[in-house]
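Suppose you are handed a protein chain with no further information: no name, no annotation, nothing but its sequence. What can you learn? This example shows the usual starting point.
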Amino acid sequence: MAGVPLLLAVGVLTACAGTVIDDKKAREAIKDDVQRKTGVEVRTVACPPDVEVDPGASFTCLVVAEDGRRAEVRLRILNIEADVETVSITPVRG
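A reasonable first move is to predict its three-dimensional structure. Written in structure tokens, the prediction is:
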């Protein structure tokens, strides 16, 4: 999976503890963008639950391609609307 910059609007959820990234929308947006921009079919995307919307903060999701290749996608939160951008895509060995 090539290092392709992505700008995603992933949405937010309001939880008891505050506003968090909608991890389901984040997974879907990452999967769609990786497939569209790299041509790599994505099997799964795993993002941490309950990521607080904190502009400037970052979090990492794990992407697994249909062919078994794995990559960590590091995302930075841009604003309180939970728009995020891809900082890096790093292949995971093993």
